Amino acid sequence: MDAAQKRYKAEQIKEALYQSDSEEMSDVDANEWENQQIAKASGPTAVKVGRKRDLYGMPAEIPPVPSVGAALGRLRGMLDELRRKRDEGVRLADELDVENEGLSARQDAVQESLTKAGRDYEALRDEFKATGANRGLDEMGEITVPLST
Asked: Is this prediction's pTM over 0.90?
């Protein structure tokens, strides 16, 4: 009996696929096709649910048309909010420009001090080499190792 039910379901699926692809179904609109498929799937004992929502029906409550004064007040409020946001953005951009100028000045000062420190180091190194003082590792980079062949 179980095999018979499986066979019956397989036949129904094949029939549904065949009918959905057949030419006779091509003139049916989407809502009718959906209703037909629901009716086929639920069988003859299914209780029909109410109609679908009417897309063009009258709403339960109709809001009043806003007055010109109310609409203008709402638009002025929106305009004030946009101006406030714009002013805040301009203020933030100005702060960032000032900060950027400060960073550029600091960067120039650091670069100048690094250059001066490099020149001072070179002068000290040359002075130590001229006096013949040995500080230990200063000459380490100048050692040449003969290659063994």
From this structure: no
The per-residue b/e assignment along 85-122, b for 16 or more CB within 10 angstroms, e otherwise, is eeeeeeeeeeeeeeeeeeeeeeeeeeeeeeeeeeeeee
CA distance 127 to 120: 10
Rounded CA gap, 34 and 13, in Å?
16
Q: Where are the domains of the chain?
A: 2-42, 74-131
List pLDDT tens digits, range 5-55: 888 888 888 777 766 555 555 566 767 877 777 777 776 665 555 556 677
Q: Which two tokens stand for residue 3?
A: 């095999």
Does residue 97 contact residue 104 with C-beta atoms inside 8 Å? Answer: no
With H, G, I as helix, E, B as strand and everything else as coil, classify residue 74: helix
Q: Find tokens 């009996």 and name the residue.
A: 1
* Predicted confidence (pLDDT) per residue in 118-135, tens digit: 999 998 888 877 877 666
Residue with tokens 């029906």: 57
Better pLDDT: 115 or 37:
115
